[in-house]
């Protein structure tokens, strides 16, 4: 079983190299950084740390890029060669090689298609208190609208793994709604038992101000509501439908 690590990155020159080095010290067969037109040293720092750096415009170049994290992940899946794709955020300062190994270990169960990270969330130096969008937006809406889903500790975690064959079958929502969309769509395709989680300890990363979290919360809410049939959301078609 081959493993690809895909790291979406936009102007994360201070942290991306650490994430790449941790991924390369794991069971990964390849480490890809999908650079979304960074204007700093993100690309060169990632390459120096040993990653294969791909500009998102160079993956399926016949398709013009759209803004957002979901776009980078969608293109990263296309570029990956592994049977399992592990996603890691580029701004995490606490990532360790064991994160990749732990996420991949969840696939020992052949019925599992998506493995999410579970961890405590640091906030501005405090050991807990992070994950404000998760606790105030995602979890309540998921409990109310999709009560059959397992209650995952971090449904919006940027660290997770998915079977590539499954990732090619599902749409990728634009922007920060991508994780919520994948969670619901994979469960819809393969059943709630296809989702699981592994404990990775504590996560620390660049905490965003409330002004930025407002837009993120709306995007996540819109994604969950779209899966409940309430409204539409911009998204990329599954790659299997584009071939």
Task: Please give a handful of descriptors for the protein shown.
243 residues, alpha/beta, 37% helix, globular
Distance separating the two termini: 24 Å
Structure summary, number of beta strands: 9
How many H/I helical runs?
A: 9
**Shape summary:** globular
> Order of helices and strands, N to C?
EHEHEHEHEHEHEHEHEH
Strand content: 15-25%
Helical amount among residues, as a percent range?
25-40%
Q: Main β-sheet, in a few words?
A: 7 strands, mixed
Class computed from helices, strands and strand pairing: alpha/beta
Low-confidence parts lasting 5 or more residues at pLDDT below 50? none
Oligomeric composition of the shown chains: single chain
Rg measurement, Å? 16 Å
Strand order of the largest sheet: 3-2-1-4-6-5-8
Let me know the average pLDDT: 92
Provide an overview of this structure.
The protein is α/β, with parallel strands linked by helices and 243 residues long. The chain has helices at 16-24, 42-48, 69-79, 97-105, 132-145, 164-167, 178-190, 210-227, 239-242; strands at 3-9, 30-35, 52-55, 84-87, 114-121, 160-163, 172-173, 195-203, 235-236. Strands 3-2-1-4-6-5-8 form a seven-stranded mixed beta sheet, sandwiched between helices. Helix 1 links the parallel strand 1 (3-9) and strand 2. The two termini are 24 Å apart. The relative contact order is 0.17. The model has no long low-confidence stretch (mean pLDDT 92).
